[in-house]
Amino acid sequence: MNKKWILPSLYILFLMLPIYGLLSMSFKTTNEILGGFSFFPQEFTLANYIKIFTDPTWYNGYINSLIYVAMNTVISVSVALPAAYAFSRYRFLGDKHLFFWLLTNRMAPPAVFALPFFQLYSAIELFDTHIAVALAHCLFNIPLAVWILEGFMSGIPKELDETAYLDGYSFWRFFVRIFIPTIAAGIGVAAFFCFMYSWVELLLAKTLTSVDAKPIAATMTRTASTSGYELGLLAAAGSLTIIPGAIVIYFVRNYIAKGFALGRV
Amino acid sequence: MRKTTNQKAWWLVVPVLLLVAFNAFIPLMTVVNYAFQETFGNNQFFWEGTTWFEQVLRSERFHDSMLRQLLFTGMILAIEVPLGIAVALSMPRKGPWVSVCLVLMALPLLIPWNVVGAMWNIFALPDIGLLGYTLNSMGFDYNFTQQPVSAWMTTVVMDVWHWTSLVVLLCYAGLCSIPDAYYQAARIDGASPWAVFRYIQLPKMKRVLTIAILLRFMDSFMIYTEPFVLTGGGPGNTTTFLSIDLVKIALGQFDLGPAAAMSLIYFLVVLLICWVFYTVMMRNEEQ
């Protein structure tokens, strides 16, 4: 009966191996990496990390990424909240079609939109700004946020709204004072997803930036191609991109399972 | 939930509508523009009708990348869904290990996609990577930059590594919502483990599984960054999936007409399959 732990353990081991490979490489010197395979770093070095934290082209990449991810999360969740409320509480002309149309944008391959986005954001002179990436990521994050929030809101009985209106609350007062605190968990989960998809996306972020708002992920591709084989540096930069995600997961760990089900368990 | 009809609810949707429309309509119309016209720059356009579409639909290259895409999506669904269900079934329901499992499993989902590609590239390097070195020293001839089969396997395993956790987490959420009483009733009836799975667990997971398959289908059909960083579409064209091919045509060769036509066909295929899924899912929810 209790051999059940074997499969999850093996699975987690499988998940951790490539991450370990990356971490161990980030502590090696270039000579050691190119010299052959070793499971543990032989000449342990922090040089790769020091380089990243002292070179502005590197650490600015992290700052840029975090800025546009934060902007996108705030924009997506705040516009998705009222919309999700409308979808979960009311019937209105074209509601179902609208909902599906929103979801279709989640299905649009970013590769399709890369070039038009470049032209659009150049035309309105937002190219290479953080807000451009934040707005572009709204394309798939708003539909997702609406979807998640709608799921959570539908789980809250409508009597809550009706009682509040009877007590003389105006719509916005009810919404801000009562409703938003009630679905705080749902908002957390939606924000988590927006963070996640904005953080991991690269194609659009790279297309819409050149210098000032260049994301860390794009800085990495440049290093990989121009300066040849700086694998240690690449590995260190990669390891550092795992940290923000890990921190965010830790905060939402209790809601993660329900959150991934988009509130529709 | 019973809903009241209220046309004023439109006002609540307006901000979302404006933002998404700005990001979706204008670029989409740009694509449509390019798909039906020929341009030599300077904003001069010549009507081409459906030439590009015919060209794309007839081209061997498009057929090949579409086939590769379908094969890839089929393979990863066939591995990730059963594996995800199995892991979710054997995960602990309570206790301190739950959080540990969840956090560790969710980790791959939050790694930027090009880092996933770079990580697997490093991991699989034949002479200095952990996986490549181990395989080669075990006597397998493995080199993903030169052998099509190795490249394919590495890409598939990378995707399994990256996304199976999504299926696990969704299924786990479904399983957690089953009340203990169901299991007790099953025990009293003397149900076999298979019967418990078939008649209690699977029906409860149906909804979340649909979401999982839908998300995995959409995302794997759009996959670009990870295989691009890992193999660059090679060796040859063996791992050039639809998005990679599209970007090659659009930004590499700057053939905007065929690229736009291909984009539209590509988008329509995804849309069609997702619409079928969505309709089925909504029908289930209404029942």
Please explain how this structure is put together.
The complex is a heterodimer of chains A (265) and B (287). Chain A has helices spanning 6-26, 30-35, 47-54, 56-89, 95-107, 110-123, 130-154, 159-166, 171-182, 184-200, 203-207, 216-226, 231-252, 256-260, and one strand at 90-91. By secondary structure, chain A is mainly α. Chain A has a domain at 63-213 and 244-260: Orthogonal Bundle (MetI-like fold), CATH 1.10.3720.10. Chain A starts with 5 loop residues before the first helix and ends in a 5-residue tail after the last helix. With 287 residues, chain B is an all-alpha fold. Chain B has one domain (19-286): MetI-like (MetI-like fold, Orthogonal Bundle), CATH 1.10.3720.10. Chain B has a two-stranded antiparallel ribbon with strand order 2-3. In chain B, helix 1 (10-36) runs antiparallel to helix 12. Chain B is globular and about 75 Å long. Chains A and B meet through helix 1, helix 4, strand 1, helix 5 and helix 6 of A and strand 1, helix 1, helix 3, helix 4 and helix 5 of B.
Task: Write a short abstract of this structure.
The complex is a heterodimer of chains A (265) and B (287). Chain A is an all-alpha fold and 265 residues long. In chain A, 76% of the residues lie in helices and 1% in strands.
